[in-house]
Amino acid sequence: MKILITEKQLKRLSEANTLLDNLNDRIDPNNFSYEFGWRDSIVIPHEVLMEGSIEDKDITVHVNIGEVIYEGQDVTQFAKNYVFWSGEGNDSELAYNYKMFIVKKINSLLRVTPIKITEWDVNLRV
Predict the structure, then answer these.
(1) Residues 21, 51: Cα–Cα separation, whole Å
(2) Which partner for 42 in 46, 50, 69, 118 could form a disulfide, CB atoms 3.0-4.6 Å apart?
(3) DSSP 8-state assignment for residue 17
(4) Whole-prediction pTM value?
(5) 3-class SS of residue 123
């Protein structure tokens, strides 16, 4: 038996979005900027992306941090090496608080699913 698919049908099949794709489309990285302290530190992400499988209830959130601003100055390179991780391999207070901020925002998007993420599901990349 042969199945014939037109070019238009093939294009539609390849462009079919999953629920996760649709949720990723709703993410605006500008809504994930985080002010820490007395608004003297601002973390501005370049990209926020969910990966994984909703069916398997296994979602990872990747946050690519674009800039870190401290008192009006770009301190991204310093933050990359010293601010987000303590010397003991643990998250710093800023990294932990930012992850919890991300968790709250992503869980509000995932409210239509049975999935709830934790800070362990958030991967910060600088």
Answers:
(1) 9
(2) 69
(3) P
(4) 0.80
(5) strand
Contact (Cβ atoms closer than 8 angstroms) between residue 101 and residue 54: no
Per DSSP, the three-state class of 16 is: coil
Which residues neighbour 30 within 8 Å (Cβ) at sequence distance 6 or greater? none
Q: Taking a C-beta distance cutoff of 8 angstroms, is the pair 43, 65 a contact?
A: yes
**Whole-angstrom Cα distance, residue 104 to residue 118?**
9
Give me the amino acid identity at 29: P
Whose tokens are 């991204």? That residue is: 76
How many CA atoms does the CB half-sphere of 16 hold within 13 Å? 7
Distance of CA 21 to the CA centre of its chain: 13
